[in-house]
Amino acid sequence: MGKQNYSREVLVVSQLVNSTRGGILAPIMPFFIYELSNRSFFLLSLANNVSLLVTLVLSPVMGMLIDKTGRRKVFILFSTCVGILLGFLTSFVDDYIQYILINLAGAVVGVAGSLAFTSLMADVFDKKSRGKLLGLYNAVGLAGGILGNILSAYVYQVVGVRGAIRIVSLTGLVTLLLYASLKDDRRPIARSSSITLIDSLKSFKDKGILRLFALKAPLQLPGILASGVFAIYFTEVLGGTPELWALLGAVNTAVGLTSIPYGYLVDRVGRKRMLYFSAVGWTILYLGYLFSRDPLTFSIFFVIPIWPAFNIAYTSMLFDITEGENRTRLLGAMNSLNSIYTFIFSMLGGIIADLFEPRLVFLIALIPLSVSIPVIKLLAPDDAKTNVN
Predict the structure, then answer these.
(1) How confident is the model at residue 386 (pLDDT cuts 50, 70, 90)?
(2) Distance CA 362, CA 347 (A)
(3) Residues paired with residue 186 on neighbouring β-strands, in sequence order
(4) In a domain, 196, yes or no
(5) Which of 19, 27, 115, 290 could, after both became Cys, cross-link 362 (CB 3.0–4.6 A)?
(6) Does any domain span residue 191?
(7) Which of 264, 283, 327 is nearest to 64 (CA)?
(8) Dihedral, CA of residue 279, residue 285, residue 288 and residue 289, to nearest 10
C-alpha cells in the first residue's frame, strides 16, 4: 500500500508540472502552427493530427511489448527523454512539414510512454474510489493549466513563442526526475508470455473496447471536428484577440476544477447518468457556438464545464473494462481506434472550415450529438455504478 500511495503522489505531482508546461503553450501554439501552415485550417489539422497515424499503427505493438515485459517505468522514462529533445527542436522549425516530421518522430516513442503511464495510473487508482481519485488528478492538472495559462501571455511577451517552446521543453527535466523516483514498477507479466502481434491485434475484437468506443464516438466527434477551429474562429471571425483567447483558456481551465465534485458524482450516481448529462450539455454548448456573434457570447458558452464530467465517466469505464493482466494491450487497441477516428474527422473539420466557413463546423457537430442519447441508452451498461460508502 505504501508503494501504491507513493506512486499516486508522483503521478499527481507530475500532472501538476506537465499541465503547467502545457498551459503555457496551449493558448499560443494554434496561432504558431496556423502561420506555419500558410493560414489553412486543413494544414493546421494535418500538422496537429498526422502523428495519430503512427499511434494507430504502433499502439497494438507497444501494448504487447509493455504487457510482455512489464517494464512500464523504462518506457515512461525513455519517452520523456525523447519528448524533451524533440520539443526543443520544435522551436527551430520554419514550416509545417518540419513540424510534422518532428511530431511523427515524437509519436513513435510517445505512444509507448503514454500507454505505460495510463496502465500504471489504472493500477494505482483502485477501482473502489477511482472516480474520486481521477477527479483529484484532473483537478491538480487543471490548477497547473490555470497557472500555465496565466504565465503564457507574460512568457510570450518576454521570449516569444519559440523561446516559450524552449523553456517549456527544458522544464520537462523536472518531470523526468519525478518519473525516475518511481519504485521499480514491474507489472505482472501476462501468463501468455508467448503472445504474438496477431494475438495483440485480436484486442480490436474485444467486445468491451468496441462497445465503449461506439458509446463515446458521437459524444467526442463535435470536439474533434472543431478542435482546429476554435482559436482562429474566436480571433478572426468573432473579433477577439490572442490575449483574450489566452484569458478564456485560463477561465475554461479553472472551471474544470469541477472535476472534484464530478468525480464524487461518478462514484455515487454512476457513469451512465454522467454521460447523459454530457450529451445534453454539449448540445447546448454547440448551439451557443453556432449562434454566437461576438467574443463575449462565445466565451459564456465556452467556459461551461461539460468536458470534466465526460472525461471522468469515460476514463472510469475504460479502466473498469481493462482490468487484468492484458490491460495495456486493450488500452493500445482503444488508443488506435481513437487515433484513426480523430485523424479522419479532424481533417474533415479543417476541410469544411476552408471550403465554407468555420461556423458550419458547429452546425455539423450537432448531428452526432442528436443521436448520442439513444446510443448511451443502448450501449452504456446499467451496472456501471460504483457505490461508495
Answers:
(1) very low
(2) 15
(3) 71
(4) no
(5) 290
(6) no
(7) 327
(8) -110
| pLDDT value at residue 200 | 58
Split at pLDDT 50, 70, 90, the class of 82 is very high
Q: Closest by alpha carbon to 69, among 201, 205, 208, 184? A: 184
CA atoms of 241 and 235, how far apart (whole Å): 5
Q: Is 94 exposed, middle or buried (0-12, 13-18, 19+ CB in 10 A)?
A: exposed
Spatial separation of the C-alpha atoms in residues 297 and 295, rounded to whole Å: 6
CA trace torsion 322, 327, 332, 338 (10° rounding): 10
In the block, cell 487497441 appears at 333
State the amino acid at position 310 in one-letter form. F
DSSP 8-state assignment for residue 239:
-
The whole-number pLDDT of residue 325 equals 63
Amino acid identity of residue 49, one-letter, is N
Q: Which residues contact 237 (CB under 8 A, 6 or more apart)?
A: 357, 358, 359
The owner of cell 454512476 is 270
3-state secondary structure of 71: strand
pLDDT value of position 136: 84
Any domain includes 194: no
* Distance from C-alpha of 187 to C-alpha of 63, rounded to nearest angstrom: 13
Do residues 292 and 338 touch, judged by C-beta distance below 8 A? no
pLDDT at 385: 43
Q: Which residues contact 376 (CB under 8 A, 6 or more apart)?
A: 215, 272, 275, 276, 279
The percentage of the chain sitting over the pLDDT mark of 70, rounded to a whole number, equals 91
Q: What's the domain range around 154? A: 2-183+203-384
Instruction: Write the CATH number for 353.
Output: 1.20.1250.20
CA 267 to chain centre: 22
Whole-number CA gyration radius for the chain: 20
Report the number of distinct structural domains present in the chain: 1
